[in-house]
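Now read these lines:
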Amino acid sequence: MANFSLKITHHRCTVNNTIISKETFGILKELAKNNNKEWFEKNKPAFKKHEASVKSFFAALQEHMEVHDDIEKMKMFRIYRDVRFSKDKTPYKTHFAGSFSRLGARLRGGYYLQLKPGGSFAATGFWEPHKDDLFRIRKELEMDASDFRNVINEKSFKQIWGDLVGDGVKTAPKGFDKEHPNIDLIKRKQFIFVRNFSDGQVHSKDFIKEVDKSFKAIRPYFDLMSDILSTNLNGESLLD
């Protein structure tokens, strides 16, 4: 382990902030094999360099996204795990991840990107809608889900993002008819889309453009959901 510590400390850290290097994934792989405080402290200087490189990548991605959306903030998540209520007591995450929040109450939805050897993906949508927002979405779908279905089933959209995913209730939420023709949508608690990436795609020089293109493609969905969540069932604004 001591020999490896010396090796990893001299890992090359890519300075190009638009590329995720193979070396960055290399240190994540070694962290997965040595998920303990002793190893992490020995290799922390090298790890922090790669972490900073990834943060620069997220910042560059935000600049791309701001061409077509209003981004309020970017957040890169810490590598330390909260193990207080978990059976898994390993202290560190084995991936880098960041989220991007849209600006203001009118622009709804969020973006997320995880970078992990063999497990990288982009996700977008509504992870845990507030109960009032969730009820509003369900009422809209109960009344008419045609616009929603048209957006998520549009060919070019589906080629990038595939099918809607996320948790839901087993039958029907309280107050909704379990036989309703749109019950498949109404019973959802999350409204998420996920796109997976291979390691080869992540290390490509075009990866940042591909992620940005994917996030840009979600806009028809975000525009529709923002309209729903900022109006009542009569289409009257809740924000004025």
